[in-house]
Amino acid sequence: MKLKARLLEIQAGGRSIAILDDETASFLGVHSSDRVRIAYEKQQVIAIANVASNFPRNYVGLYEEISRKLGIKGGESVEVQSAEVPEAIRYVQAKIRGERLREKEIDTIVKDVVTRHLSDVELASFITALYIHGLSMDEIEALSRAMVKTGSTLSLDKRPILDKHSIGGIPGDKTTILIVPIIAAAGFTIPKTSSRAVTSPAGTADRVETLCPVNLTIEEIKEVVKKTNGCMVWGGALELAPADDIFIQVEYPLAIDPMLLPSIMSKKKAIGATHVVVDIPTGRGAKIKTIGEAHTLAYDFIDLGKRLGMKVQCAVTFGEQPLGWAIGPALEAREALSAIMGNGPADLKEKAIDVAGILFEMVDVENGRQKAERLLESGKAERKLRKIIEAQGGNPKVKPQDIEVGDKKAELTTDRGGRVLWINNEDTAKIAREAGAPKEKRAGVVLKAKLGENVKKGGVLLEIYAERNAKLETALKLGEKLHPIGLTEKPEERMLMDRIPTRVIERKTFVLER
Amino acid sequence: MKLKARLLEIQAGGRSIAILDDETASFLGVHSSDRVRIAYEKQQVIAIANVASNFPRNYVGLYEEISRKLGIKGGESVEVQSAEVPEAIRYVQAKIRGERLREKEIDTIVKDVVTRHLSDVELASFITALYIHGLSMDEIEALSRAMVKTGSTLSLDKRPILDKHSIGGIPGDKTTILIVPIIAAAGFTIPKTSSRAVTSPAGTADRVETLCPVNLTIEEIKEVVKKTNGCMVWGGALELAPADDIFIQVEYPLAIDPMLLPSIMSKKKAIGATHVVVDIPTGRGAKIKTIGEAHTLAYDFIDLGKRLGMKVQCAVTFGEQPLGWAIGPALEAREALSAIMGNGPADLKEKAIDVAGILFEMVDVENGRQKAERLLESGKAERKLRKIIEAQGGNPKVKPQDIEVGDKKAELTTDRGGRVLWINNEDTAKIAREAGAPKEKRAGVVLKAKLGENVKKGGVLLEIYAERNAKLETALKLGEKLHPIGLTEKPEERMLMDRIPTRVIERKTFVLER
Hints:
The structure is a homodimer. The first copy, chain A, folds into 4 domains: 2-83, Barwin-like endoglucanases, CATH 2.40.40; 88-134, Transferase, Pyrimidine Nucleoside Phosphorylase, Chain C (Transferase, Pyrimidine Nucleoside Phosphorylase, Chain A, domain 3, Up-down Bundle), CATH 1.20.970.10; 162-241 and 259-400, Nucleoside phosphorylase/phosphoribosyltransferase catalytic domain (Pyrimidine Nucleoside Phosphorylase, Chain A, domain 2); 405-493, Aldehyde Oxidoreductase, domain 3. Chain A contains 18 helices and 18 strands. Chain A has helices at residues 22-28, 64-70, 88-96, 103-114, 120-133, 137-149, 176-185, 204-208, 218-228, 242-254, 260-270, 291-307, 329-340, 346-362, 368-377, 380-391, 425-434, 469-482; strands at residues 2-7, 17-21, 35-40, 43-52, 59-62, 77-83, 162-166, 190-194, 230-234, 275-282, 311-318, 326-327, 408-413, 418-423, 444-447, 454-455, 460-466, 485-488. In chain A, the strands form 5 sheets. Chain A has a 6-stranded mixed barrel. In chain A, strands 12-15-17-13 form a 4-stranded antiparallel β-sheet, with helices on both faces. Chain A has a 3-stranded parallel β-sheet with strand order 7-10-11, sandwiched between helices. In chain A, α9 packs antiparallel against α16 (380-391). Chains A and B meet through β4, α3, α5 and α10 of A and β4, α3, α5 and α10 of B.
């Protein structure tokens, strides 16, 4: 039937939603969450109907996503009809029943996800069913391929193309800023895309952004890689696997991540990677708690890589404390720059050398670890980093002290001395976030003591940096409340780890990074 | 932080949603689907944040649900803060992991559902997890109780209180219009609430509405029941189990119904029922396909009834064809009125007498079936129906022919003669809907042949009634395409029932009625 278009002048977060009043909806035989086809001149879209009780009759309310697609300014007469439910619904229902999905069925789902033909309710049900029933490796492969097919790709006419990925989980992991220059300095191609922080105090894109722009187009990336062999850019706007950005919207509130493997590996495939190291930080305070879990995940990464035509190796790394001392975008960039210049924390340099060494050995470089170490210590990696910074539009002469950090500063001290027995990754991250990270790039935390080190009574456990006094104060208060660092003279004095009075399910801060 | 309120002037379908631009959201540390607390003067609400990329900075966009609660007109400065996720999320996550939920945990979930503290994504995940993992009878009981606790109740100071419920699925089931008067005529109390059609051509509330108003308040229901012992009203606006209206919003697009038992039984409990008959139409074309399935469901109803303090018996009824001849609100009301006046189809009268008889026997009336039959045949039930119609505000003298049916009429004929071998319930319902039912109350279908009857070549299979010629035509076309009635001279000529070329999953028209 003909309805008048009324523009709502807001976006529906990418969703394809149209509003109908209940009389009009009944007349069309449309129930909330049924589909309608909206046609205007030669354009048409499928939208999900939201039925409202107070919407004017004979109108259809259009969010910007739809009005823009149809080229509508408001007030036009559009043809609205009930439409079939998308084919993908059938396969979502099959998955709910626990059936295995075939490649063609998964293609249909991913296509309908990207075109926003599935509602949040249907997506959430699909993700939940995937999580509960699990995915076969055939399904994981099909999902990965479908996500690549529906996204952009980076075509470099070079071979091999190296890449690394960390599943995240420990604060302060700025290893990428060292690894990319080491690999590129050896003449290998490494077009690295990274994410911004969602629930952590800094993502690699946030860190690098304090050194140079990271929001590059595919064409700009090609230029930078042509000049320098490498890049460190934000992957978020490249649409390498746009389905993932939609899946993540429903995974995040549920804190489940059944799409982890396809999500990570589709993006590696999309940039054309041939050799990939996946870093799996492991430990009580990390996302992966035990070596056993790390192995299971690692074999899945390797198997999936093989199916997608990529060589994959995994590095299980120590994840029981933050990496280095600094946490927060600017503080971490400063620390990474110091480290590549020869200073900075040993654990950061060790890890960078380890991961780069594995990558070298994967492409048949002998004594890969030694080569990585030499490139770092000789200053070649530093020179390469500066070239990448320059190519991306930053200042190649930047010194660590040029990177501004918050000028409001406080110290968290201890009222008892002792040896550091544990550092709580999550609590440390929370304090850095409370101080303003990642949005306030100069905010964060610097650890003054790490595992096994001694702290005197009254000594400083960590420094907090902030851009604003209010944030500094709340972060300090949070630090005093959380006790993120545990000290003891004798470990045996602290045998009790937890008491379980009732079911307390801690919400995971987030699914693995991807 | 202080943000300016901007009214969106539309509803979010009851949802509690606030829109923030991404810079403002980052500043608050809020991600899409995180919660925010919005305070204005002495009021505050928790809303789910939708982060938009084109929303003005330092504004918060409020749908009407929220602006009304806060008493905001637009432009006011409101305090917006990041808020904790609701406690219910933990238990949703526990259910996703397959854990059994305790009563207190279920109470928390249902409370957070009713206050709209859970998003569609979280609700869909919960419903999916319930469906996949199944519910224990303890959980079903706790859900039922929680749904009663969060809704309105009807308190009548009478005992016993009788009720009946059909899980639906066969078109034309107007039995309630006969049963309520039979029971009430015997002096028993039966305050019957019914639903409107969602995906069927008529719900009982739609049928009764062509005889008298059905949208009564709790107080009005009390008055009607006081006068007549019974009523036939629409339950939808009574808020007997408001959680169910929200659950159903996510169950409908997924076509799964894990909440069926709590949904039905909480409403029986809320109106104070002590004795309930549940009608389970069973057959290939019904929702429940086999006697075995019907028994399993029946035992669950009986067990749950016992736990909630209600005596329950179930009637497994023949469900392989529509009940009576008429389908569509007015056509069915007319047929029910004829039947209670002594005419009308035999299957309808038989079923009404059967169900009423069971109810009588449950409250220790001897020869219940005979009593029901006598009340129907003596005209006492008719007189009672007229009193109920009058008490609800209708015309007590209404004659069947007074009930207007569509004046556009067409016939679906057959090009071969034979005996009726099957009638497809779903296709018959689709034709009635295509003709305009349930919204166009006078539209529908009248069967001219039922199972086992003979039709001559060129004879009429069904009549279609519509209010508008366009609807009549499309309904007739659909009828010709669907072949809703199967005829054959010899059943053995039609051995092939289906061919399975590929996975075809028919979308269920809907979950069981409730």
